[in-house]
Amino acid sequence: MTDPPVDLLALMPFAQTLGVEVLAAGPDEVRARLFWRERLCTAGGVLHGGVLMALADSTGALCAYLNLPDSASTTTIESKTNFHRAVADGHVDAGRVAAAPLTPFIGQGFRHLGPRYDPLSGEGARLHGGRFNPPGSFPVLYICQSSPCAVAELKRLGERQAIGVEGLLPRVPTATRSTLTECSTSPTATSAPRSASALTS
Fold first, then answer.
1. Which residues pair with 131 in a beta bridge?
2. pTM of the model
3. Which of 116, 131, 107, 108 is nearest to 172 (CA)?
4. Spatial contact of 146 and 110, defined as CB atoms under 8 Å apart
5. Cβ partners under 8 Å of residue 95, min gap 6
6. pLDDT tier at 98, thresholds 50, 70, 90
7. pLDDT digit string (tens) for 32-59?
8. Which residue has the higher pLDDT, 72 or 18?
9. Among the listed ranges 15-24, 77-86, 143-152, 190-199, which one has the minimum average pLDDT value?
10. pLDDT attached to residue 200
11. Partner residues linked to 93 by β-bridges
């Protein structure tokens, strides 16, 4: 880990406004600190939840930024925070460790897709968006490790689009034998599609 560059926080004026201090920053780990200040509080003299969320998001953003290839950018598309206790004095430290090396997955993956899409294509997710990519962004191949998981994802998609599972039919469930490593997918075989009714039962 290296000491943070002097201008690193200049990339995030909002974090500067909050008073976030970067303790250390490098591709493997980022650590930041925010001191309790009355102006950052909500009722009762405790740090506002949004301030704590901003500290966490800023720390993660710096870690992502330090791991980006040249000319790439990043943005937060989804965030969830659990608060365990109030902060009424002192400071809060945040740390973000870059993802550990991925363990290759070799096995069967399950997914559902519209009948016009190739089972090994992420084109549907590129066009319509998915859990981790907005519509029109980039292709993603979403694979579940079990058939019930694929059914649950289909139900979630129907709820998110407010059309229910029926509004997504017909769908084609597929099972693919895959080897997934850090940066590549090497599908070795695709089973014959099963009937859509099996997916909704």
1. none
2. 0.50
3. 116
4. yes
5. 29, 30, 31, 32, 59
6. low
7. 999 999 999 999 999 999 999 999 999 8
8. 18
9. 190-199
10. 24
11. 33
User: How many CB atoms lie under 10 A from the CB of residue 82?
Assistant: 4
Identify whether the C-beta of residue 105 lies closer than 8 Å to the C-beta of residue 178: yes
Q: How far is CA 139 from CA 22, 105, 106, 126, 184, in A?
A: 34, 20, 21, 4, 13
Residue 157, beta-bridge partner list: none
Task: Take residue 196 and report the two structure tokens written for it.
Answer: 């859509």
d(CA 127, CA 78) in angstroms, rounded, equals: 19
**DSSP for the chain?**
-BPPPTTGGGG-HHHHHHT-EEEEE-SSEEEEEEE--GGGB-GGG-B-HHHHHHHHHHHHHHHHHTTPPTT-------------S---SSEEEEEEEPPPPPPPEEEEEEEEE-TTS-TT--HHHHHH-BTTB-TTS------BSSHHHHHHHHHHHHHHTTSTGGGG-S-EEEEEEEEE-SS-B---EEPPP--HHHHH-
How far is the CA of 89 from the CAs of 19, 23, 36, 43, in angstroms? 15, 19, 5, 14
- Alpha-carbon dihedral sign for residues 143, 81, 5, 1: negative
For the residues 71-86, what does the mean pLDDT come to?
A: 81
**The amino acid at 71:** S
**pLDDT tens figures, 113-133:** 888 878 788 888 888 887 777
